[in-house]
Specification:
The complex is a heterodimer. By secondary structure, chain A is α/β, with parallel strands linked by helices. Chain A has nine helices and ten strands. In chain A, strands 6-7-8-3-9-10 form a six-stranded mixed β-sheet, sandwiched between helices. A four-stranded antiparallel β-sheet of chain A has the order 2-1-4-5, with helices on one face. In chain A, strand 7, helix 5 and strand 8 form a beta-alpha-beta unit. Chain A starts with a strand and ends with a helix. Chain B has a domain of 191 residues: Orthogonal Bundle (MetI-like fold), CATH 1.10.3720.10. In chain B, helix 11 packs parallel to helix 12. The longest helix of chain B has 39 residues. The chains are: A alpha/beta, B mainly alpha. Chains A and B meet through strand 6 and helix 2 of A and helix 10 and helix 11 of B.
């Protein structure tokens, strides 16, 4: 069985005025349909770069990326991205922000009313029906991120790519949105690739955790399969021995074997 | 606290008092009675005074100095009183017309504004799209940048002979001069605005795979609008500066020519009035565009 997303021997070298920077080397990764994969690593390890490669916002220096058997050459609506800083357009209402993507994907084949229904349904899915006419600056950070997720989901993407989606939120809001994301993903059976630096988030959400070594020339250090039954409950899991074990393995990788970036860089 | 009670028995009595109101306050929000509206703030007269008085004092000082300097009389420079009287006569009938060389000050201002509107409008029509193109495509930027840097600092009046040569008439030449001088701030600000559109928004456009038209209408245009309006404001200011100089050279009806005409008549009072009027009109144009800019500013 061939994987849904396939990264084959991808290399990424940035050339800037300061010189060449070897960001990623020999990345090989397969993501199955409906799988939830998180990329974790210290900051600067190139996990966002890998996500941007899959999104098509960057092109690899060498190597091949495939999505559903086709080469990824440019961004496309079948690979929706949720950005860390939500990236909603401040001059559009929440409704219009979501509609923008919906129009692009379904505008040619569906009526205005259907597009409107899709947009409203997506906002209802993330619990934002009350803020259709609000602009991004009128709602909280957590709500903006929900709208960002709604915008991505409304396009019915084959893959949801999330770049530290909850990184800028406070701990309580983050936990709440993680729970909601789990429910939404269970309902929509989406394939998700998420970048995070939060160990608990990774263990709670993932089917597999891709742990990356420190840059420069970072690569995949280890892949940890999380075999916890779903639906997962964060309170029960807190004392679950398997959960604690997985958590410790990730921490061990990040802090013992691939310790501080500062020391590595020095 | 204890020492306070010890030293001042009356304070001890007072300190027990707040306990009661505190209890009342704690229960108040639970009561269904709507809380009374907060009393209206008493009007802040001193603050208003501090805002209004200094400008008045400053203006009065200027008039006073002017008055003292012209007290002797006999000089060419009129007294404030004389200028005031002249202005009264002038503004009591601003729209008379005794042939092309003797028209009311209202007509002169309107003719000047018309030229500014034409020159500036054409500049906006050309400059804003040009700014978009220069900002969006690096090649165009590299092509245009040296030309803009070279032409922008050129004095407005240097362009006038070119206008006269090409159009062979005074009025189009004046409009041309305004056009060429007011186009630069709009081109430059629009281009800078386009270049500074946050990468996040452009990434959104790429991920949503928006068409170039949607990118322009939904992302570039709203993001650039504040920069563009700054350019427009600077341009109108420049246009209004240039018109006076251009009209002095080209003649016809207009506030600039009027200043020159009054100089030939040695009517200094009218020149001073013209300076004041030019200032007021410039200020109004600026304020008008500030209002527009505020309407289109958005908070992130």
């Amino acid at each position: 069985m061939s994987a849904f997303i396939e990264v084959q021997n991808a290399e990424m070298v940035f050339t800037s005025r300061k010189g060449r920077f070897h960001a990623l080397r020999e990345i090989d990764l397969k993501v199955e349909r409906g799988e939830f994969v998180t990329l974790i690593g210290h900051s600067g390890c190139g996990k966002s770069t890998l996500l941007n490669l899959i999104a098509g916002l960057l092109s690899p220096t060498s190597g091949v990326l495939l999505c559903d058997g086709r080469e990824i050459a440019a961004p496309g609506p079948e690979r929706a991205v949720v950005f860390q800083n939500h990236s909603l357009l401040p001059w559009l209402t929440c409704f219009d922000n979501v509609l923008l993507g919906v129009e692009r994907v379904f505008g040619a084949s569906e009526s205005k009313a259907q597009l409107k229904d899709r947009t409203e349904a997506a906002l209802a899915l993330v619990g934002m029906s009350h803020a259709l006419a609000k602009r991004p600056h009128e709602i909280s950070g957590g709500m903006k991120q929900r709208v960002g997720i709604a915008r991505a989901l409304a396009m019915e993407p084959k893959v949801l790519l999330m770049d530290e989606p909850f990184g800028a939120l406070d701990a309580l809001t983050r936990a709440h949105l993680q729970d909601e994301l789990l429910k939404i993903v269970a309902r929509t059976k989406s394939t998700v690739v998420m970048v995070t630096h939060d160990v608990d988030e990774a263990v709670l959400l993932s089917d597999r955790i891709v742990m990356m070594t420190n840059g420069p020339a970072a690569t995949i250090g280890e892949i940890l399969k999380i075999e916890l039954p779903r639906p997962r409950d964060r309170i029960e899991l807190a004392e679950d021995s398997a959960y604690v074990h997985y958590r410790k393995q990730v921490l061990d990788f990040l802090y013992t074997r691939h310790g501080h970036v500062e020391r590595a860089a020095a | 606290m204890v020492s306070a009670v010890f030293h001042n028995p009356s304070a001890a009595v007072r300190s027990t008092e707040p306990a009661k109101p505190a209890v009342v306050r704690a229960t108040a929000p639970a009561a269904p009675v709507t809380p009374p509206r907060p009393a209206r703030q008493p009007f802040d007269w001193p603050a208003l005074g501090w805002r209004v008085l200094p400008p008045i004092v400053g203006t009065s000082l200027l008039v006073l100095v002017w008055h003292l300097l012209t007290l002797e009389g006999g000089g060419a420079f009129p007294t404030p009183r004389a200028v005031w009287d002249a202005a009264y006569v002038l503004f009591s009938d601003p729209f008379y017309s005794n042939g092309p060389n003797d028209q009311g000050i209202g007509w002169n201002i309107l003719y000047s504004l018309e030229r500014v509107a034409l020159g500036f409008g054409l500049a906006a029509l050309v400059g804003i799209p040009a700014g978009f193109i220069i900002g969006r495509f690096a090649v165009m930027h590299h092509m245009a940048a040296p030309l803009i840097s070279l032409l922008r600092p050129v004095s407005p009046l240097a362009w006038l002979p070119i206008g006269l040569l090409v159009f062979k008439a005074a009025n189009p030449a004046a409009i041309w001069t305004i056009f060429i001088c007011s186009i630069w701030p709009m081109v430059i600000n629009t281009a800078v605005g386009v270049q500074r559109v946050p990468q996040d928004y452009l990434n959104v456009a790429k991920v949503l795979n928006l068409s170039e038209w949607k990118v322009i209408t939904r992302i570039l245009f709203p993001a650039v609008l504040p920069y563009m309006l700054t350019g427009v404001r600077l341009s109108v200011g420049t246009a209004w500066l240039v018109i006076v100089a251009a009209e002095m050279l080209t003649g016809g009806v207009g506030i600039g020519f009027w200043v020159w005409d009054e100089w030939n008549n040695l009517n200094v009072a009218h020149i001073l009035i013209a300076i004041f009027v030019i200032g007021v009109v410039g200020l109004l144009l600026e304020q008008m565009l500030m209002l527009v800019a505020r309407r289109f500013s958005y908070d992130d």
